[in-house]
Structures are given as C-alpha cells and as structure tokens.
C-alpha cells in the first residue's frame, strides 16, 4: 500500500487549519505523467485529505487555474526538468498565481525540481547529463542544491557557482532531506532518512565557497540511511 512520505506528511501538517486539508500535486517538471498523479491519489486513499492534480499538458485540466490553486492548503511539486517547469509556469502565469498562493498562506513544497523552483536558482541536468546552473522563480532569495549526495557533479559545481557569484549563497540537501522556511528565512532542516544532511554554502572572504553542515531533525517514520537514489 502506498503511503505519503514524512516530508509530504509534514507539509500537510503545516497547512492552514480546516476540516479537511486540500492538497494539489503539480507534475509539470515530469511532463504530467498519469502514473505520478495516480500514485499521489493512492497514497492518500482513505485519508481525510482532498487530493487534486494540476496538469498543463496538453492543456490545463481545470478551467480556472488561479482559483484552483488558491483553494488549496498545500501545493506539492514533483521532480523532473527544472528548466522546463519554470519556463512553462511563466508561460501560463503560474509564477504570479503561486506567489499569490504563498502570500495567502498556502504551503508550497516539493522534491528536486519542486524544491529548486522556489529559490533563485540551483544546479540541474535539464539541459543534458552535464550539470548547469538554472534560474528559479526567486520567491526565496537563496540558491538551492538538490541531490547533493547522490550525483558526483552536484557538490563541486554548486561550490563553484556560489564562489563565482553565479548563484547566491544558499542551502543544499542530501536526498530525503527538506528545508522548512517561514517567509524567506530557513528555520529548520528535516529528514525522512537517518544520516542525511543539509548544508549552507556561501562565498567566503577569500573567494572560495564555505560549506556548513546543518543537522536535520529526523521525522516520524524516517528510514535507516541507505544508498542515495
């Protein structure tokens, strides 16, 4: 039986009070795959959570996208192509819509591209196997390094981009680790896998990147650490 992971459970817990939380999954970065939509619905089957999915391929699946998003308590964004996600959201005006959701208190979150998109930018394989910098929506003034422990190119490239000033200082996460922001302040790192970490990376006085590990709080239901996916 599918179950939502601890990070997604936390997002629902953090949402504004209501009789039944409303969660919308947005899979733009992965091409709105039906399988991911079905998996999210299945994960909450039998729970007091109203689940919806917003698709943009081949056209929006709701008549009023802005109203649909603002009716949610949580908007959870899946992984995939960060570059395609940002470009398509801007084309459809979701950058403006989601900013209004955030101002209204809707919890915004996600994994991989669904984490990076809220930041100023980060590293991505959207353009091919050689990682490059990519621009995010900039709701948060920080950069974001995803898959920090899972892909050999991620850490050195993130360090170099921050050291060069191509990316602002920011937060990186091992797989399974999340960042909790209140406004644009990162208040806590949390993890659904024991042994994983978060990191703050900034440009030091000598021009080199300086990395500081942040020990995350282990969430209920967390797994014992294993190989990164």
Structure overview:
The longest helix has 11 residues, at 82-92. The relative contact order is 0.13. It is built from seven helices and 13 strands. It folds into two domains: 1-109, Rossmann fold; 118-218, no CATH class. 27% of the residues lie in helices and 29% in strands. The chain is an alpha/beta fold and 229 residues long. Strands 6-5-7-8-11-12 form a six-stranded mixed sheet, sandwiched between helices. The protein has a four-stranded parallel sheet with strand order 2-1-3-4, with helices on both faces. The model has no long low-confidence stretch (mean pLDDT 95).
Key words describing this protein structure:
single chain, 229 residues, Rossmann fold, four-stranded parallel beta sheet, 29% strand
Brief write-up:
This protein is α/β, with parallel strands linked by helices. The protein has helices spanning about 5-15, 35-45, 65-70, 80-90, 95-105, 115, 155-165, and strands spanning about 20-25, 50-55, 75, 105-110, 120-125, 130-135, 145, 170-175, 175-180, 185-195, 200-205, 210-215, 215-225. It is built from 7 helices and 13 strands.
């Amino acid at each position: 039986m599918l179950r939502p992971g601890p990070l997604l459970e936390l997002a629902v817990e953090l949402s504004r009070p209501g009789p039944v939380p409303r969660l919308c999954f947005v899979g733009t970065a992965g091409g709105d795959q039906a399988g991911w939509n079905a998996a999210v619905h299945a994960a909450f089957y039998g729970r007091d959570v109203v689940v919806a999915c917003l698709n943009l391929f081949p056209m929006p699946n709701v008549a009023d996208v802005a109203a649909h998003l603002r009716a949610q308590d949580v908007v959870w964004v899946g992984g995939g192509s960060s570059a395609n996600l940002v470009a398509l959201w801007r084309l459809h005006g979701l950058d403006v819509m989601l900013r209004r959701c955030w101002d209204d208190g809707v919890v915004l979150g996600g994994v991989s591209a669904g984490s990076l998109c809220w930041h100023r930018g980060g590293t991505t394989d959207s353009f091919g196997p050689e990682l490059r910098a990519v621009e995010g929506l900039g709701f948060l003034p920080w950069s974001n390094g995803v898959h920090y422990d899972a892909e050999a190119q991620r850490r050195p490239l993130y360090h170099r981009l921050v050291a060069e000033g191509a990316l602002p200082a920011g937060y990186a996460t091992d797989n399974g680790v999340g960042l909790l922001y209140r406004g644009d302040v990162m208040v806590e790192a949390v993890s659904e896998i024991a042994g994983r970490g978060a990191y703050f990376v900034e440009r030091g006085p000598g021009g080199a990147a300086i990395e500081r590990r942040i020990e995350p709080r282990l969430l209920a239901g967390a797994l014992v650490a294993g190989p990164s996916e």
